Amino acid sequence: MRYFFLVVLLLSLASCKFHQPEFRGDEKFEVKKMDGQTITLNAGGKVYNGNWFGVKIKPSILDLYINDDYVGKVHLEKKVKMKAKRETMIEAPLTAYLEKGTLMKLMAAGMKSEVTLRFKGNVKAGVFLFSKKFEFDETKKVSGKSLRP
Fold first, then answer.
1. Which tens digit of pLDDT belongs to each residue from 17-66?
2. How many helices (H) and strands (E) does the chain have?
3. I need a surface site. Which of 26, 27, 76, 93 has the fewest CB within 10 A?
4. How many domains does the chain contain in total?
5. Could you tell me the CATH number of the domain that includes residue 88?
6. Core vs surface per residue 10-27: b (16+ CB within 10 A) or e
7. Reported pTM
């Protein structure tokens, strides 16, 4: 009887609908350190989780585009937790691994007043033992000054 209850519980949890979290503003973007082809940075903002349960965004890898030019991969370093049914101010430590020759593009973008950043890829979100990958494609405009270390 216990196993039947466990199977019903697992099936009901696995079939729950997952609402993708949405950005609600107060974005911040800060370059911490540039080291060769690697850049350490912090990104943050207000995110609303419309689910009735807390969600953890697990370490993921995204493609990074600056002004529609592919420059490399971005890796989320640690889990980010979002509380259920509320806005949460999150900060995410990221590491960008640049392609060869893109450092000059990055420096040129840092001289502009406004730069378009695009993060694209699959992000893995999880609740307890269950996780799901969803498509992430977010474009943000930031000041060129914020790309300078």
1. 667 777 777 777 788 888 888 989 888 888 888 888 888 889 999 999 98
2. 2, 9
3. 26
4. 1
5. 2.60.40.10
6. eeeeeeeeeeebeeeeee
7. 0.76
